[in-house]
Design a protein that fits this description.
The complex is a heterodimer. Chain A is built from no helices and 11 strands. By secondary structure, chain A is an all-beta fold. In chain A, strands 2, 4, 5, 6, 9, 10 and 11 form a 7-stranded mixed beta sheet that branches. The model of chain A has no long low-confidence stretch (mean pLDDT about 90). By secondary structure, chain B is mainly β. Helix content of chain B is about 0%, strand content about 55%. In chain B, strands 2, 4, 5, 9, 10 and 11 form a 6-stranded mixed beta sheet that branches. Chain B has a 5-stranded antiparallel beta sheet with strand order 1-3-8-7-6, with no helix packed on it. The model of chain B has no long low-confidence stretch (mean pLDDT about 90). Classes of the chains: A mainly beta, B mainly beta. Chains A and B meet through strand 9 and strand 10 of A and strand 4, strand 5 and strand 9 of B.
């Protein structure tokens, strides 16, 4: 149980385009989803926390107009990187937490974004 | 001061030895503690969770929690080369609304 999927796994796009990443909890209801970014050889950096049906809470320094997060249902959250630039190239990972567990987060497999 | 601190390593152990990974945290009201394993280029994978003082064993893994001293550790017995990864310690407060991750300890198990 506690499986989280992420799509796409890898995306390459041109500078200035927008990219949408989907995160789904497959076998549990995710009341909270988290979005992380990880640069090579660096630790996870939390970008934002989203609760189903409400606006996401962004960490300091993360532009909410650039990284749009939608958590429309208990099994789906999306992250849209708007007007992507090469410096946005990174490994984006979502995680999900449900009600039936004591706080565990379960991670999706991640999306590797490369902006040319 | 960081919420969660880990030695970045790398920690090198020979195959078959015990690997000991340590983590300290600053928030005394932290309630839940987790160890994640992250292979290079992959996302983190939950391997252990612990909520009360003492030891918790799961196969070759033992998590140890000491709330008074504010540390949590992970022991890996009979280490295998496949255990080579970065191990992340995570701590969450009573309402579970946020995770605090350490920067991770890189473990190398040499055949």
């Amino acid at each position: 149980g506690a499986v989280v999927s992420q799509h796409p796994s890898r995306v390459i796009c041109k500078s200035g385009t927008s990219v949408k990443i989907e995160c789904r909890s497959l076998d549990f209801q995710a009341t909270t989803m988290f979005w992380y970014r990880q640069f090579p050889k660096q630790s996870l950096m939390l970008m934002a926390t989203s609760n189903e049906g409400s606006k996401a809470t962004y960490e300091q320094g993360v532009e909410k107009d650039k990284f749009l997060i939608n958590h429309a249902s208990l099994t789906l959250s999306t992250l849209t990187v708007t007007s992507a630039h090469p410096e946005d190239s990174s490994f984006y990972i979502c995680s999900a937490r449900g009600l039936a567990v004591r706080g565990e987060q379960f991670f999706g497999p991640g999306t590797r974004l490369t902006v040319l | 001061q960081k919420e969660v601190e880990q030695n970045s390593g790398p920690l090198s152990v020979p195959e078959g030895a015990i690997a000991s990974l340590n983590c300290t945290y600053s928030d005394r009201v932290s309630q839940s503690f987790f160890w994640y394993r992250q292979y290079s280029g992959k996302s983190p994978e939950l391997i252990m969770s612990i909520y009360s003082n003492g030891d918790k064993e799961d196969g070759r893994f033992t998590a140890q929690l000491n709330k008074a001293s504010q540390y949590v550790s992970l022991l890996i017995r009979d280490s295998q080369p496949s255990d080579s990864a970065t191990y992340l310690c995570a701590v969450t407060p009573y309402n579970f609304n946020k995770f605090y991750f350490g920067s991770g300890t890189k473990l190398n198990v040499k055949p």
